[in-house]
Amino acid sequence: MVATLHSVRKSPDAEGDDYKTLIGMARATSDHAFNATIWDVLVDPSYQGQGLGKALVEKMIRALLQRDIGNISLFADSKVVDFYQNLGFEPDPEGIKGMFWHPK
Ligand SMILES: CC(C)(COP(=O)(O)OP(=O)(O)OC[C@H]1O[C@@H](n2cnc3c(N)ncnc32)[C@H](O)[C@@H]1OP(=O)(O)O)[C@@H](O)C(=O)NCCC(=O)NCCS
């Protein structure tokens, strides 16, 4: 699932196409049963601090819940842990740890 945010500038010409610019996105992968992971939550720096990132994540949560997917996880950079905690995410529920494998 991909959610996108666009800024839309009306064409001065009544018949002309509007100008759409991508200013934010979020992505989720899921098993279509119980679990989803949110990735790549991004808002263009010139549009940050206006509630758009929060709206994007809340929209994604609502869309997943509508599909009965209620077990939602993500990986948070240390700079955005508070952002996600504000949205109801908690670190390491039930002692679950993210684990990584790297080629040695
Ligand atoms: C993180 C990001 C998506 C937030 O988007 P945003 O549109 O600026 O955030 P919002 O304006 O919706 O902020 C919602 C709330 O979170 C808070 N917040 C925003 N960024 C925060 C941060 N880095 N740390 C803590 N709180 C933050 C805001 O103050 C606001 O609080 P409020 O509801 O009490 O007013 C955006 O800064 C971004 O794209 N960052 C670069 C990419 C990135 O790090 N993505 C996360 C990948 S793990």
TrEMBL record:
Residues 1-104 form the N-acetyltransferase domain. GO terms for molecular function: N-acetyltransferase activity. InterPro entries: Acyl_CoA_acyltransferase, GNAT_dom, NSI-like. The keyword Iron does not apply. It comes from the Eukaryota. Keywords: Acyltransferase, Transferase. One of its GO terms (cellular component) is cytoplasm. The keyword Ligase does not apply. This is N-acetyltransferase domain-containing protein.
